[in-house]
Amino acid sequence: MPADLLSELYPLFNAASPETVEWLSSVATHHDYPADRAVVMEDAWGNAVYFIESGWVKVRRHSEDSSITLAVLGKGDFFGEMAILDESPRSTDVVAMTAVRLMSISAQRFIQTLFKDPQLHHRLLQIMVQRLRQTNLRFQLRHQPPAVKLANTLTAIQEAYGEPVEDGVELVNIPRKDLADLADITIDEAEKIISKLVEKSWLIEDSARGVILLKNARQLAHLAGRL
């Protein structure tokens, strides 16, 4: 991928020097995965940082015979940096929700780049703080009604990865269990709330394309308490 496109696609590289971006582009490896394929297994964390060129993935935590979805990530985001920085064992994996194209940079090269480019280092810290704030927000919402929790979840995802179209904003159609995990509500609650949003014409599900259309993102943000 050309260096200028790399900076355009990934906010992490906005502050990096042109030399840094050029070098990272030259040492990156690209991977394609079909939907439902495990992208990174539990024992593979710490080998590289992964950048999403296209498609959607979910990060899951495993506990005995069950799993909980911790995050849904889309184009322009990245994962794997924490495993590199703290070098601790992981109990999570990453699974492709759709067909996915990833770019990976080895742990050694990524760490070397952080030492050489302080602006990139600072930008990484900023993004990690933003993620921490999002986690704190989810914790603060734990006593809110299920509809507020789910509205916050959908709003956060559409703000980060939504694709503007003529009639609204498109997102991947996230399975109900994953939505429930992300919003910390039950699957039944998620199903009822989505049905109400469909009735209000705030949301349209396109099963054939595997996407949802948020037709009234402003009202959804208002429900989430973000306006």
Question: If you had to describe this structure to a student in words, what would you say it looks like?
Answer:
The protein has helices at 3-9, 18-27, 81-86, 107-116, 118-140, 146-161, 176-183, 187-199, 217-223, and strands at 29-33, 38-40, 48-54, 57-63, 66-73, 78-79, 92-96, 100-106, 163-165, 168-172, 203-206, 211-214. It is α+β, with helices and mostly antiparallel strands. The protein folds into two domains: 3-139, Jelly Rolls, CATH 2.60.120.10; 143-223, Arc Repressor Mutant, subunit A, CATH 1.10.10.10. It has a four-stranded antiparallel sheet. Strands 2-7-4-5 form a four-stranded antiparallel sheet. A four-stranded antiparallel sheet has the order 9-10-12-11. The model has no long low-confidence stretch (mean pLDDT 91).
Summary, kept brief:
GO terms for molecular function: DNA-binding transcription factor activity. This protein has 9 helices and 12 strands. With 227 residues, it is of the alpha+beta class.
List keywords for this structure.
single chain, alpha+beta, Jelly Rolls, Arc Repressor Mutant, subunit A, 2 domains, four-stranded antiparallel beta sheet, 9 helices, 12 strands
How are the SSEs ordered, and which strands pair?
Elements lengths: L2 H7 L8 H10 L1 E5 L4 E3 L7 E7 L2 E7 L2 E8 L4 E2 L1 H6 L5 E5 L3 E7 H10 L1 H23 L5 H16 L1 E3 L2 E5 L3 H8 L3 H13 L3 E4 L4 E4 L2 H7 L4
Antiparallel strand pairs: 1-8, 2-7, 3-6, 3-8, 4-5, 4-7, 9-10, 10-12, 11-12
